[in-house]
Amino acid sequence: MNEHKIGRDTAAWIKDSIRKLIDSDENIHDNRSGERVFGKPLIGFSRGDDPIFDTICELGQEYGATTGRKRQVNWMEWELLEKAVKINGVTHLVVNKMDILSEIQRWSLFCNKIKHSFPSEQSFKTYFEDKLGETGISIYFSGDKGRI
Predict the structure, then answer these.
(1) Domain ranges, ordered by start, for the chain
(2) What is the pLDDT of residues 17-73, one digit of tens each?
(3) Which site among 42, 74, 104, 130 is 20 to 30 Å from 112 CA-CA?
């Protein structure tokens, strides 16, 4: 009987936590189709409504291959990259769209929920190299959609 009560309390807590998370203005997650998951931001730190993202989308041709729908564009979240690198045993990392960032002269990312903007492409690259350098990962910065 006591276990059943704990189960209900836990389920209620989970549902309440999810509702709060979905309603949070600070959380965003996109499903890459141009539509928000659950209709509201879910995970992340930027709402993605900066007009620069429309420019990046246009220049980077960020449209679905099948549907042609505009993809959601946002700054990279460093913690998600680090997690993916660890989980997948990454040995080589390609940072693409550098040509687009160079064209708009903006290099930014989120780390610890704080937006970091860099004054130059080189300082952006140095950040990657400094943060990932000790891992032994080979980092490539691609400035051409036709090759790495």
Answers:
(1) 1-73, 75-148
(2) 766 766 665 455 555 554 544 444 444 445 566 788 889 889 988 888 888 888 888
(3) 104
